[in-house]
Amino acid sequence: xxxxxxxxxxxxxxxxxxxxxxxxxxxxxxxxxxxxxxxxxxxxxxxxxxxxxxxxxxxxxxxxxxxxxxxxxxxxxxxxxxxxxxxxxxxxxxxxxxxxxxxxxxxxxxxxxxxxxxxxxxxxxxxxxxxxxxxxxxxxxxxxxxxxxxxxxxxxxxxxxxxxxxxxxxxxxxxxxxxxxxxxxxxxxxxxxxxxxxxxxxxxxxxxxxxxxxxxxxxxxxxxxxxxxxxxxxxxxxxxxxxxxxxxxxxxxxxxxxxxxxxxxxxxxxxxxxxxxxxxxxxxxxxxxxxxxxxxxxxxxxxxxxxxxxxxxxxxxxxxxxxxxxxxxxxxxxxxxxxxxxxxxxxxxxxxx
Length: 353
What we know:
Layout: H1 2-39, E1 43-49, E2 51-56, E3 59-74, E4 79-84, E5 91-92, E6 97-101, H2 104-132, H3 138-164, E7 166-168, E8 173-178, E9 185-186, E10 191-208, H4 209-212, E11 220-224, E12 232-240, E13 249-257, E14 267-272, E15 280-287, E16 299-303, E17 308-312, E18 314-319, E19 322-327, E20 334-338, E21 349-351
Parallel strand pairs: 1-21
Antiparallel strand pairs: 1-20, 2-15, 3-10, 3-14, 4-6, 4-9, 5-8, 6-7, 8-10, 10-13, 11-12, 11-14, 12-13, 15-19, 16-17, 18-19
Helix pairs in contact: 2-3
């Protein structure tokens, strides 16, 4: 019992000593901070006055040209290819026969379907006459009529297969890929040709959410294509996605007439003009370096009679190293552009520049 009491007393003494040490250390730290604060009265900073600048506000977006129309042509029946009428690079028109599949077996099926139809017609006529005299029931007559309809449908289906033996182009364009040769045996769904129409192309680009509101369907857009020189091509916006992707970019398509030099897959740059049609605007700007924790934070320090004051502003688009200020600042205000890492709200500052 005595040992237990001794242990308790010793533990209490140790806890008391630890608490005293912590309090004493905190007092020493506070005193040190106060002493440093007396030594460093002002923080050196650079400043810049807020001003209006003439900024090139054109917005550019890069993308690739895609065909306005393209299709993958596949076989719709099974059989042996007996002729291929085009090669890669051939121009074709919609409905043109590009390949022929042997149809001997299909024609046999057509003959059989036609024979079945004739039998169904004869049987149905017999049932129709017999029903008038009460020789068959209404149910038997209905069954006969159904068999006749099925036989007619079978003939139509076989005729479709005969027509599909002639493989035709679904669109006008150019054979980009030929994936079949004479003698090949194909099944329904076997790829045969890839056809693209590049008389008209679409430049597919992604537009930032801050810019998409400026765009409208039918709007003219200049396009630069480095691979064809300095020539500028003009297109029109035909599609603006109603929903952004995960990066808050909106797919936009610009349709252009092919001048004979463009090809699908080429790289192009769309140049979107500002709403006022000009290339430059006078806008209120500050350097991007003025912002604390990046431009997206909207936070920066201003010089308030020798004291750092943190404020929050509304920002627009970033043009190079300049940021458009929508609200929160006025011309002539002084923003701190360096030294912010050492600042807090209310700190005194020494302006170096």
